[in-house]
Amino acid sequence: MLMSSARNARASQVPNYERHRPEQTLLYQLVQQHYPVFKSSLDDQGQSLPRYVQREFEDFLQCGRLEYGFLRVRCEDCHHERLVAFSCKRRGFCPSCGARRMVESAALLVDEVFPAEPIRQWVLSFPFQLRFLLARYPELMGKVLSIVYRILSTHLIKKAGFTKATAQSGSVTLIQRFGSALNLNVHYHMLFLDGIYTEDGHGKQRFHRVKAPTHDELNTLVHTLSHRIARCLEKRGVLERDAENTWLTLEEEEGDVLTQLQGASVTYRIATGPQQGRKVFTLQTLPGRENQADTNSRVANYAGFSLHAGVMAEAHQRDKLERLCRYISRPAISEKRLALTANGQIRYELKTPYRNGTTHVIFEPLDFIAKLAALVPKPRVNLTRFHGLFAPNSKHRVQVTPAKRAKSPINRKVSILAGVTRAPQSATAL
């Protein structure tokens, strides 16, 4: 079986456990100080966050704290003991649980899911209206993702010279809900086989690689995606179009504070306080750069949709593939990029500067809490999806994946990766 670099490293090194102390981090201190104030201000207005969002904050404040429960671990040889605090296992913004999930997910995908074939990342971003729609109605994410998978897999199969009756592809999609500015940004990171499989005369699966997509092909695909997705949403009655405009047809729900917070987060606006409705403050420390069209680039844009396919890992680049898996399954917040200004505002550094030179976003403390609340996913929403050859019900999965699992219900490891249900509290492993 193929082994990831992370697992090889763990096998060759002596483990050195150091207890995580969340109370010493800036993020914990900000939530501990300002979340009660934010919650109280909502109570004064007769509003409240959904219970699952409140539990996200409450459990985060208990995550990694010994006073809220721990596991006593004893070495069988030297009888040395350590106390390992329980973790919250939440999926919204906890950096500790998010980092552990990132490492476990990447190791699982590389060791047990992806075969030794080239893998390409396809990233699809949506217009603001659809980001809000998918965040508010997560059941639509699966419908839209099915459309995206069919279009991209059909493209690969036809490009290889086969038909859907004789060939299959496969992908693993991680649905990210955040952008680099702590904004709510639902988008798809799809790790696709950079080719297709066919069955030979002996019943074995044979891989056929396809060439990288051209700029013209990406343009055609993004146009097709936008029209097919819009048509699907029209049929479901949540979208209407005319010759010039497209708009959502959603019923407004009075007192739904989370919807207001999500709308502000999607559009980069301040959600609370005297500056409510204005654009989030930004800091520009670099000169802007021109947006020059490049016909050789592997990115295409149309009507707010963006399709990118410029990153791939060759069959022998398992280390690169694992880094890519870690990147797309990373937690929403990087504590290294979080800081306080001299006047008590919160400064968050962008992972990549914007074209206009923006490098940081600035939040008031209560608006920062509002941004965290908007990032919390609903319970039991699967943010990792397997399609094609990698799907749990694929009869060819046993021949293709390193784990050689036959068609069967999703096992426990994949359930943990998918995040379908919240497991009971357990000890922090990092």
Automatic annotation (TrEMBL):
GO biological process: DNA transposition
Alphabetical list of InterPro entries matching this protein: Transposase_32, Zn_Tnp
Membrane-crossing residue ranges in chain numbering: none
Domain Transposase IS801/IS1294, residue spans: 170-394
Residue ranges occupied by any Transposase zinc-binding domain in the UniProt entry: 31-125
UniProt keyword list: Plasmid
UniProt KW Transferase keyword: no
Molecular-function annotations in GO: DNA binding; transposase activity
Protein name: Transposase ISCR like protein
Organism of derivation: Serratia marcescens
